Amino acid sequence: MFSHVMLGANDVQASKKFYDAILGAMGYKPGVIDDKGRCFYFTKTGVFAITKPINGEPACNGNGSTIGFAAKDPAQADAWHAAGIANGGSACEAAPGVREGAGGKLYLAYLRDPSGNKICALYRVE
Q1: CB within 10 Å: which end of the chain, N or C, has fewer?
Q2: Phi/psi at 96 (nearest 5 deg)?
């Protein structure tokens, strides 16, 4: 359904360090900076990118917005979370763990990136 996700960042280099660490914990290659200073992570199924906002205003998080990254298992979600904390992110929500809801049992780990965007790693528990 989605071709790409792009998030605003006030400091692209700090955000690249953070996303290189958390996405690296999931087996992805480091981001690539283009000639406009944007950072891209390319996969077979889509693109994740970070950029300074083109309108010149400061980047800010979307209240109620969350970007989820698929984890292959709870251990990968935990490694993702630990890498984020160690690289400029901050914990939010409850500690990583299983939650039950309309979508069934989910293993979730939440973080705020260096610009305050809320992200999570998600593993669907069978």
Answers
A1: N
A2: -55, 140
